[in-house]
Specification:
The protein has 97 residues and is mostly beta strands. It is built from one helix and seven strands; from the N terminus they run ββαβββββ. β5 and β6 form a beta hairpin.
Length: 97
């Protein structure tokens, strides 16, 4: 569904849910997930419905992920860096994260 317009930028290796994902320098976490074909980044706490990035500018909070052990981060506002560990959030975020 999402496709890069041009294959430019330095390659950055991140890990999403324990699997390596190729990203590009300058990508946000949300953009890297979408470009890698990952169709959702969290599920709702009540129904478990999948949620995906929507506004990509920090307004809607649909792109919440755990980044390097810190939960409920807005993936659309966080630039990727080499070795970053991203986890999708399932339901309610765990206490202490």
């Amino acid at each position: 569904m999402f496709k890069r317009l041009a294959d430019t930028g330095t390659a950055v290796a991140i890990v999403v849910d324990g699997k390596p994902v190729a990203a590009r320098a300058g990508d946000t976490v949300a953009a890297a997930l979408l470009a890698a074909g990952i169709d959702h980044c969290r599920t709702t706490p009540v129904t478990g419905a999948p949620r995906a990035p929507y506004c990509l500018m920090g307004v809607c909070f649909e792109c919440l992920v755990t980044v390097d052990g810190v939960g409920s981060r807005q993936g659309c506002l966080i630039p990727v860096h080499d070795g970053m560990k991203v986890e999708t959030q399932i339901g309610k975020r765990e206490a202490g994260r």
